[in-house]
Design a protein that fits this description.
The protein is built from eight helices and four strands, in the order ααααααβαβββα. The protein is an alpha+beta fold. The chain has a four-stranded mixed β-sheet with strand order 2-1-3-4.
């Protein structure tokens, strides 16, 4: 990991820990989870917001005013709004994506959940996602939250990553294995 990336991770982790501790409690964690989901969706959907938090061209005041407007429009909690305002005043908004990821991990740990990253050739239906979560829960022993993405190059099947374990049942990897076997047989 490069030094600037590790510094960003450290900054994000400190803000995430502070927000998490301020929001502890069942109702606070639910509100925090709602805030995080809204913030992540906004970051994914708005190039302007990503530019605002990353660009050094905006002054502290401009970033503060803009992020306050965004927080108000998204109806974020007072804790999250104040944290974002503090981050803007310290020119630390660039770590918001890492802070969101850290908070998601903290919330999942507090709830006893494990996140499974699933890559499929086509988008999973709700029934398929629920069945996969149930199967993984039986295997792992704790609740599983599915984080799914689509990669059409897989042709079919799934790639499931839970922690350090990976299960690859994609047609693409089976064809690659078959190709390697055929090369070895020559």
């Amino acid at each position: 990991m490069s030094e600037p990336a590790s510094i960003s991770s450290g900054i994000a982790a400190r803000y995430a820990t502070a927000v998490f501790e301020l929001s502890s409690g069942a109702k606070g964690l639910k509100t925090l989870e709602t805030d995080i989901d809204a913030l992540a969706a906004a970051l994914d959907g708005s190039e302007d917001l990503r530019d605002l938090i990353a660009s050094p061209l905006y002054s502290r005041e401009q970033q503060g005013a803009a992020i306050a407007g965004v927080a108000k429009k998204m109806k974020l909690s007072k804790t999250m709004t104040n944290t974002l305002a503090l981050m803007a005043s310290k020119r630390r908004l660039f770590v918001v994506p890492q802070m969101v990821a850290s908070l998601r991990a903290m919330i999942a740990e507090a709830k006893g959940e494990v996140t499974a990253d699933v890559v499929s050739a086509k988008a999973l239906t709700k029934a398929q996602s629920d069945k996969l979560a149930k199967t993984l829960k039986a295997s792992i022993g704790s609740d599983v939250k599915i984080n799914s993405t689509v990669d059409e190059s897989l042709i079919g099947g799934l790639i499931v990553k839970v922690g350090s374990k990976m299960i690859d049942t994609s047609v693409k990897s089976k064809l690659a294995a078959l190709q390697n076997t055929m090369k070895e047989a020559r």
